[in-house]
Amino acid sequence: MRIKDQIVLITGAGRGLGSEIARSFAGESARVVLNYRASEEAARQLAEELGSDRVLALQADVTNAGEVAALVKAATEHFGSPITTLINNALPDFSFNGDLRSRAEEIHFAEFNAQFTGVIGGALNTIQAVVPGMKDAGFGSIVNVGTNLFQHPVVPYHDYTAAKAALLALTRTFASDLGPANIRVNMVSGGLLRTTDASAATPEAVFDLIASGTPLRKVTTPEEFADAALFFASTWSRAVTGQNLVVDGGLVMN
User: Fold this and answer.
1) Which residue in 36, 139, 150, 160 is the catalytic one?
2) DSSP 98
3) Catalytic residue flag (residue 160)
4) Cα end-to-end distance, the chain, whole Å
5) How many domains is the chain built from?
6) Residues 6+ apart with CB under 8 A from 135
7) Is the four-CA dihedral 193, 194, 198, 201 of positive or negative sign?
8) Model-level pTM?
9) Dihedral, 54, 17, 248, 91 alpha carbons, nearest 10
10) Running DSSP on this structure, what letter comes out for residue 158?
11) CATH number for the domain harbouring residue 132
12) 253 belongs to a structural domain
């Protein structure tokens, strides 16, 4: 199914990386559902920017299965067709500051549990909500947003990294389970991006250090990251499932 014929749900799309992924899909003429939890004004402004006839902003906390089901129902009724691509981008609250994170000898399981609930619980709710429609359409692409930190753990984001590693396991087991229905499940993993809400406070020296460690000698942009999500939604990846594509300029090589 060509991207212009698809309905794409992007969670956490009100700001940051999610908004750039939304712009990329809208630029390919897809119909786009912008999910937000609290960023209502930003999401509605983005919908206006991208064209409200093909873009719909809907509120839901992805950790609430009932709210997610209601969102998917509303989007399907609005566009008259089921969601065919899901981008799991939403994150629970997290401070991306290594100096403020709990170290190994002091972190509590409650911190891990909060990330597992948001990352795994949120992905489970959204996937289960969209799969029936994907099966009806005979096509589905699910893209989970990961991180290169579980291969290159340079900051003590223990809870966040563990949850994203678990999301890769879910990506692969769900790819195996849903493959017979022609539903593909993949992951796109980035590192430090220039620039999102998560990296807004990052000193320029850190960007320079990361860039110097990549073969491309630059830090990946949100737009470049979004290109990989487009690939997994397109017919160009029709035989690809259960994969983790690291988009970080070659800092991490699989």
Assistant:
1) 160
2) G
3) yes
4) 29
5) 1
6) 181, 183
7) positive
8) 0.94
9) -120
10) H
11) 3.40.50.720
12) no
